[in-house]
Amino acid sequence: MSQDLYETLGVSRDADGDAIKKAYRRLARQLHPDVNPDPATQERFKDVTRAYEVLSDPEKRRMYDLGGDPFNGGGFGGAGAGAGFSFTDIMDAFFGGAGGAGGATRGPRPRVRRGQDALIRLDVELAEAAFGTTRELKVDTAVLCTVCQGEGAAPGSHPVPCETCGGRGETAHVQRSFLGEIRTMRPCAACRGYGTIIPEPCRECSGDGRVRSRRTLTVKIPPGVDTGTRVQLSGQGEVGPGGGPAGDLYVEIHVADHAVFRRDGADLVCDVTIPMTAAALGTTIDLPTLEADVAGEGSDVETSVPLEIRPGTQSGSQTVLRGRGVPSLRGTGRGDLVVRMVVETPTRLDPRQEELLRELAALRDEEAPDGKVQAPHRTVFDRLRDAFGPR
User: Fold this and answer.
1) What is the pTM for the complete model shown?
2) At a CB cut-off of 8 Å and minimum separation 6, what does 116 contact?
C-alpha cells in the first residue's frame, strides 16, 4: 500500500474506534458518488472506504500496523472498490443511525403492542345531554385471552428464539455492486421480524394473545354535551396484540330532537302560541321546563315557570328567561330559555263573536283599515346615494 490509511481518513495512529468511525462518516458524506459524481472524487471515496474497512477491524488494523497486508493480496485488486464493507456503514455515514434513516433502532419488533382506539355512537335525549346521565353500553372489542394470558402460546409452552435469524428478527442479504459487496438487513421471513417463533399457538386466540368479546361498560355523560361531543374512556378500547395495553374508547354523543325545545348552543328556544285576546289583554301561563323530562315522582325539581304575557304582545316577539337553558360543559352557569310568541288569529267565529269583534273594530276606528306598507330597511349607502346622486 503506497498511501497511509490513517492519513487517508485524517486520524492519528492512536485514534480509537469512535474517532475512526466519525472521520469516515464525515468523509463519506462529502465523497459518496450520489453526492459528488466526479470520477476523481469516486476514486478517493474508494480509498476512504478501504482505509475504514482496515482501521475499523481490530485484526486487520493490527496486521496493517505490523506492516502486513490485511487484504492478503486480494480484496481491492480488482476493478471494484473495497469488497466486504457493510452497507450499514454507508447509511451510518449519511444518517448517523444504525443502518436506517433517522437512526432507527435495529432488532426484533415486539409482539406486545398497544391496542387500537374504538369509537361508538350513543343516542341521548335533550334533557340527558343537558343535565347529564349514566348509561350502560354493550361493546364488542378485543380483550385479553384468558387461556394464554396474552402470550399467544398454548398452556405449558412458550415462544422460542428463531433459528433462522438467531433471535435478531432480521437477516442479512449480500449484493455485489461497483462498490463491492453491499450488505442490507431485512425482516426475517421465518419469524416475521419478531425474533421468536410460537411452536404451539394458543387454540383460543390462534397466537394473537387476544379474542373478541362483548362486555358491558358504564359511561357517565357530563352535563352540557351536544351532538358531536366525544367522551373518552381511557384504556377501554381494544387490547393490543400479544396482550398489549388497551387503547381508548370514545363515545360520540348524538342528541335527539325534542318535541318542544330547540337547542342553540347553551340556549334553549321554544314557541308559545297564544290567542289574540291574550296577546292584547295580557296574561300569565305556566311554561314547562326541560327539567320536567328528568324529574322523577316526588322530585322537588321545578318543572314549570310562570311566563308573563304583557298586554299588546306582538307575534314574533321574544321573552328571555335567564339561566333556564343548558348547563355549560366547560365552566359554570347555564344558558337562557328564549320564548318566541306566536299570536293565533281565530279562523272560525260564531255570530256573537263576529258581532263583538265588529264593535271593537268600530270603537278603534279599524272598520276599513288601509294597512301599513313599510319601506324596506334603508342603509347608510342608500342615504348617501340619495344625497349626492344625480337630481
Assistant:
1) 0.61
2) 237, 238, 240, 247
